[in-house]
Write a structure and sequence with these properties.
The protein is about 40% helix and about 25% strand. The protein has nine helices and eight strands. It is globular and about 55 Å long.
Length: about 260
């Protein structure tokens, strides 16, 4: 995925993410990441592809320091605005690429990455970087939406996601994600998934493009009427379009050599 395209799309979405209220479900997902991370008061935490800092701020009360890194200046501007407004002193934000992070080997006790893997065109690079900057004995927590294990269904699902958001590269299946994490030299200790039912309007909330929103709705309603799941369990209920995402949570440990 070209760097400029990702920056442009997320800079454009930044205001919507900034103004958007977190649902109870989203707060619960953040709490699950915190539970897996098992942060101690002396831990330095890295939030990869931090966006407006949702994960960073959720973990800050438990940590000594949280560093968020993101490729989008627009997202980071909103994150810094939140930090200033809330008076958070132990969170810092850095502009940078997840594939080439400006940190030393083993610099962090915990590394987290939420809803970003599917934006990386070669996610093995970013996951290797996360493992590189993780201290021996540290914890890596990755949470991302995943696709079907069925290749044809996954291709259709990913095509739909790219029509919604051009910065989308590819959602991995659960087995692909686990394989990439293990290949980075860390040991997976926990894996589980959850499903999230959403209306079409909720899913498209941060996409401030009415033409894209309307055209994609016509396509997905047609698929739903034809009984095509598209890896999203597309369905019409009471004339409203619904879909379901599956979210994977993976915790890995970096063993001492």
């Amino acid at each position: 995925m070209p760097k400029d395209l990702v920056q442009e799309e997320f800079d454009r979405q930044a205001e919507r993410w900034f103004r958007r209220e977190l649902s109870a479900h989203e707060r619960a997902l953040l709490a699950q990441i915190a539970q897996l991370a098992q942060i101690n008061p002396e831990d330095r935490v890295l939030d990869v592809a931090c966006g407006t800092g949702l994960v960073s701020f959720a973990l800050a009360p438990q940590a000594r320091e949280v560093v968020g890194i993101d490729i989008s200046p627009g997202m980071l501007a909103k994150a810094r605005e939140i930090r200033h407004r809330q008076g958070v002193r132990n969170v810092h934000f850095i502009l940078g690429e997840a594939a080439h992070m400006p940190f030393k080997d083993g610099e962090f006790d915990v590394v987290v990455c939420r809803l970003a893997i599917h934006h990386f065109s070669q996610p093995e690079r970013e996951i290797r970087e996360m493992a590189r900057v993780l201290k021996a004995g540290g914890r890596l927590v990755i949470s991302d939406t995943i696709s079907s294990e069925d290749e044809r269904e996954a291709r259709l699902h990913n095509a739909i996601e790219r029509l919604r958001d051009p910065s989308h590269a590819r959602m991995l299946s659960q087995s692909e994600l686990s394989k990439l994490i293990e290949s980075a030299g860390v040991r997976i200790s926990d894996v589980y998934t959850q499903t999230r039912d959403r209306t079409y309007d909720d899913w498209m909330d941060v996409i401030s493009d009415p033409i894209r929103t309307e055209n994609l709705k016509v396509v997905l309603e047609g698929l739903a009427r034809a009984g095509v799941s598209a890896g999203l369990k597309l369905r019409l209920e009471n004339n409203q379009l619904w879909l379901t995402h599956t979210i994977a949570f993976v915790k890995a440990l970096k063993d001492h050599s």
